[in-house]
Structure formats: structure tokens, C-alpha cells
Automatic annotation (TrEMBL):
SUPFAM superfamilies: Homeodomain-like (SSF46689). Keywords: DNA-binding. The keyword DNA-binding applies. This is TetR/AcrR family transcriptional regulator. Pfam families: TetR_N. Residues 47-66 bind DNA. Residues 24-84 form the HTH tetR-type domain. Signal peptide: none annotated.
Amino acid sequence: MNTILSNLKIQVNEKIYVKDPETSPLGKKIVEQSILLIDEIGFDNFTFKKLGEKIGSNESSIYRYFENKHKLLVYLSSWYWSWMEYKLVFATTNILDPAEKLSKAITIVTEKVTDDKNTEHINEAILNKIIIAEFTKTVQTKEVDQENKEGFFLIYKRVINRIVGIVKEVNPEYPFAKSLVSTIVEGNLHQHFLMEHLKTITDCNESVSTTEFYLNLAKNVLR
């Protein structure tokens, strides 16, 4: 799978950026260092001025790639979910048993993320930390309806609906497949956040992974 992934280009809606950052060394550096800086200081404190200082480039050069920092965060989110979709597709394509396929899909979207060495300029483990902490800021905005119409969240919704299709294979009679899967995918981010910051209100910890919890949830709901 790693060989296949290394030859694939992660697809992101072109309306999110001004210039595709994947097309130049500076663009890739902007993406790489923005991930590190957002992880270091948080999205609220992140600015293009600070990023420009970090990469040794003018602030104006960053605006040639992204209109604002919100669009940059949406780009990072879209990139993450596109990468996750590739993993999901290749991990489940040859599995015939629906229950086994669902278990694999849930594992893919909930397991601890490690850095993918096939993407040299993006550290997925750190990007995952940003998605856990900041993902809601990409969708919970006044512009969400318009951005949704423009397809900003298409990849994220595609990940959800791929797993919804597997749930329907497991139990075609279950009436809440979309709600179940969106709860698993986004709830997993919340559980990881609780594990890191509010440990007393989650059962997930170093011994009990979020994957175990959501596999158990799905099994009991769909039995």
C-alpha cells in the first residue's frame, strides 16, 4: 500500500487555495511549516506574519497561495481527510466480509496516526493533532453553508459516506447509519482530545484505545 500511496497525489478542492502549494518548493514549505507552527502555538495565535518569519519569506508570498488562515486550515483538513480516504480505500478494497470490512474501516479512522514517510513535507502525526484540536473551526463558521456549496467539505463527507456504505452492508435495516458513522469519525477526535486534556471524563486511555471503544459501539448497535 505504501508504494501505491507514494505515487498518488492528494486531491484538494482548487477553490480552497489561490495557488496549489504542491506545485512549488515554497508552497510545500508553507504547508510543512504551518503544520509545525499551528501545533506549537495553536490556530488562534497563528498568523501569516509569524509563518513568514518562520520560513524566512515575506507575508505577501503566503497570500499568493492562501487567501487567509481559515482557508489554510481548511486546506490542511481537506488534505488530511483525502489522505485518510486513500488509506481507507486500499485497506478495505479486497475484504469481502462486511463485518470485517467495517472493523477495518473503523480502525483506520480511529487508530493512532503515525507519520507517513511517503509524504516528505507533511508529518501526518502532527497534522492529526491539529485536526483533533482545530477541526471544528473549519466547519463551525458563519460561512459553512456557502463553503459547503463550493465543495470545501466534499472529501470529509466522502470518507463518512464510504463507511456508511459498509454499515449498510452489515445491517441494511439499521436506520441511523449516517449518524452512527459521523459520530464515530468526529467523536473519535473528541475522545482523543479528552484523553489528552480532560482524562477524567473518558474511558479511553493508554490501555483502552478509542478504536476499541468504537468497534464495541458499532458491534453492539448493529447486532
